[in-house]
Structures are given as structure tokens and as C-alpha cells.
């Protein structure tokens, strides 16, 4: 089975080009609409895509066309995407989109190929879209190596509850880290203080009540570390 490593990409100012406007193409388009300009090329569009184009998720361009395997290359050259998503129900078109994307130095997400169909390396620019959980600025990416997307979804739903409040914890511990540095606290003490804050049940519970409660709890955890 292909081993894949999760990396995080910044697509601001970039374009994601999706071939295929069905159930899968529209899920991918909505996934990327907050992160990038999205163009969907397809002869027909899922209802969800029409809602997305009208909604406030950012502008998704819907282009009505059914390029054949030869014509997808021209679309990629014109649109210059950072990522191509091959999500049509035509395997030859998806394969052509993958090849043309790689030739154009773009990333490619092939939605119709399982890990079992890809023995050996898939190449570093052939990417898997993980299930993601977000509590800004915290992001969890989850993959089953392509073995079971349904499991990726189920695990994502479990983790959603686990990381509730992680965004606030990231903000709080990030600013405490800067403050301890400014106060000239020695590096080892600083690290120990932050390590204890992010593991403190009291701070997590405090953050659920509000940022200032979390802050108070964190301050007492830190004072304990500093007098040790
Ligand atoms: C390889 C990969 C390529 C890629 O698309 O990137 C891929 C491929 C395929 N998916 C298939 C099926 C389903 N995919 C989902 C759902 C998701 N699929 C996603 C990713 C991936 N899917 C990549 C691997 C991810 C990993 O490593 O785990 C998620 C995580 C992200 C996203 O797509 O946004 C998103 C959940 C998002 C969320 O909810 O958080 C469901 C569940 C549902 O719809 O309820 C089903 C039906 C149940 C099932 O079959 O498991 C099929 C069979 C098609 C057929 O029937 O022939 C193939 C093709 C094949 O395997 O051959
Ligand atoms: N990655 C994933 O999570 C999943 C992947 N799949 C695979 O993804 C593919 C698409 O699945 P669905 O969206 O459910 O199928 P679908 O049939 O709902 O959508 C396919 C879309 O591709 C469009 N299309 C056909 N020819 C085209 C062309 N030449 N250029 C551009 N668009 C074209 C169709 O008009 C349609 O809108 C299938 O091959 C399936 O095996 C299926 C389920 C989940």
C-alpha cells in the first residue's frame, strides 16, 4: 500500500481546477472554495455546486464543457492551476488530466483510483485529500492510505469532539509562549510551563467558559512551574 505523508499547503491566490461536477467533484470544490479560486469544468453540475456558486463560500467558476482526453491538457495550460482534481466518471479523462497536470508541474488528486490500483510509488505530486477537522488555527488531517475513505470520515467525526477548544488553546499557549520569552524566562522553564498548560484539564475547562477563565487557569499553572 502506498505510504503517504501529510503536508499542509497554502493555496491563497492559487487556482484549483476540478474536472467533473458530480457528487465527488462538488465535495472537492466545496472543500477548496475557502482556500483557493476554484474552477469546475463539467457538462453537468450537481445541485450542491449551484448552491455553492451562489453562496458565500467564495466564487466557484462553473464552466460547462466536456473535454475529451486530448482537450483536458488545453484547460490545464489556460487555467494554470496549482492543483488538478480528476473527478469525472470517465477513467480515460481522469487519467489524461493526471498526466497533463504532472506535465504542467501541478499537484493532482485522482479521485477514482484506490491504493490497491497503485502498487509502488504514486509520485510526490499525486496527492490524497484527507478528511480534515478544523478548530482554527488547529487542523487535523486524516488518511487511511486510501484503504477506507468511509473509515476516514467516521474517525473524522470522532475527532471533531476531541479537538473542541483546541483553537483557543493554540491562541492562548502561543501568546503565553511569547510573553514568557519577553519576560526573559529561561528556555527550559518556558518549555516546561507551556507543556503543562497544554496538558492541563483546568485550562481546557476554563477555555470552555471563556478566554479569560482559561487565561487565569494558565497563569496559575505557570506560576507553579516558575517557583519549582
Ligand atoms: C483515495 C481517495 C482519493 C481522493 O479522493 O482524494 C479516495 C478514493 C475513493 N473514495 C471512494 C468512496 C468514498 N469516499 C468517501 C469519502 C471521502 N473520501 C475521501 C478521500 C479519498 N477518497 C482518498 C483517500 C482518503 C484516505 O486515505 O482515506 C475523503 C476523506 C476526503 C474528500 O474526498 O474530501 C472523504 C471523506 C471526507 C469527510 O467526510 O471528512 C466515502 C464516504 C461517503 O461518501 O460517505 C465513500 C463511500 C464509502 C467507501 O467506499 O469507503 C472510492 C470508491 C468509489 C467507488 O465506489 O467505486 C474511491 C476510489 C477507490 O478507492 O477506488
Ligand atoms: N474520491 C471519492 O471520495 C470517491 C470517488 N468516486 C469515484 O469518482 C468518480 C466520480 O464519482 P461521482 O462524482 O460520484 O460520479 P458522478 O457520475 O456523480 O459525476 C461525474 C461527473 O463527471 C462529469 N463528466 C463526465 N465526463 C466529463 C468530462 N469529459 N469532463 C468533465 N466532466 C465530465 C459528469 O457530467 C458528472 O457531473 C467515479 O469514477 C468514482 O469511481 C466515487 C465515490 C467517492
UniProtKB/TrEMBL annotation:
Q: Write down the EC number.
A: 1.3.1.76
Tell me the InterPro entries matching this sequence.
Met8-like, NAD(P)-bd_dom_sf, Sirohaem_synthase_central, Sirohaem_synthase_N
Q: In which pathway does it act?
A: Porphyrin-containing compound metabolism; siroheme biosynthesis; sirohydrochlorin from precorrin-2: step 1/1
Domain Siroheme synthase central, chain residue ranges per copy: 136-161
Q: What is the enzyme's main class?
A: oxidoreductase
SUPFAM superfamilies, A to Z? NAD(P)-binding Rossmann-fold domains (SSF51735), Siroheme synthase middle domains-like (SSF75615)
Q: Which UniProt keywords apply?
A: NAD, Oxidoreductase, Porphyrin biosynthesis
Q: Biological process GO annotation list? A: siroheme biosynthetic process
Q: Which domain of life is it from?
A: Archaea
Question: Does the record carry Cell inner membrane as a key word?
Answer: no
Q: Can the keyword Oxidoreductase be found in this entry's annotation?
A: yes
What's the catalysed reaction? precorrin-2 + NAD(+) = sirohydrochlorin + NADH + 2 H(+)
One family name in Pfam for this protein: NAD_binding_7
Q: Which GO terms describe its molecular function?
A: ferrochelatase activity; precorrin-2 dehydrogenase activity
Name assigned to this protein: precorrin-2 dehydrogenase
Amino acid at each position: 500500500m502506498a505510504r503517504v505523508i501529510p503536508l499542509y499547503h497554502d493555496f491563497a491566490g492559487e487556482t484549483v481546477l476540478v474536472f467533473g461536477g458530480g457528487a465527488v467533484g462538488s465535495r472537492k470544490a466545496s472543500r477548496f472554495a475557502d482556500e483557493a479560486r476554484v474552477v469546475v469544468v463539467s457538462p453537468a453540475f450537481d445541485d450542491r455546486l449551484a448552491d455553492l456558486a451562489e453562496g458565500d463560500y467564495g466564487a466557484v467558476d462553473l464552466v460547462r464543457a466536456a473535454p475529451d482526453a486530448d482537450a483536458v491538457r488545453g484547460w490545464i495550460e489556460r487555467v494554470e492551476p496549482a492543483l488538478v482534481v480528476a473527478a469525472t466518471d470517465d477513467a480515460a479523462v481522469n487519467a489524461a488530466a493526471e498526466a497533463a497536470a504532472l506535465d504542467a508541474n501541478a499537484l493532482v488528486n485522482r479521485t477514482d483510483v484506490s491504493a490497491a490500483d497503485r502498487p509502488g510509488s504514486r509520485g510526490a505530486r499525486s496527492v490524497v485529500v484527507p478528511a480534515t477537522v478544523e478548530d482554527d488555527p488547529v487542523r487535523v488531517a486524516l488518511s487511511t492510505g486510501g484503504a477506507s475513505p468511509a473509515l476516514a470520515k467516521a474517525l473524522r467525526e470522532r475527532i471533531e469532539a476531541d479537538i473542541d477548544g483546541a483553537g483557543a488553546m493554540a491562541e492562548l499557549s502561543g501568546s503565553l509562549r511569547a510573553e514568557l520569552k519577553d519576560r526573559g524566562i529561561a528556555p527550559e522553564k518556558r518549555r516546561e510551563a507551556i507543556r503543562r498548560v497544554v496538558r492541563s484539564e483546568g485550562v481546557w475547562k476554563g477555555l470552555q467558559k471563556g478566554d479569560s477563565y482559561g487565561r487565569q487557569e494558565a497563569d496559575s499553572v505557570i506560576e507553579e512551574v516558575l517557583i519549582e
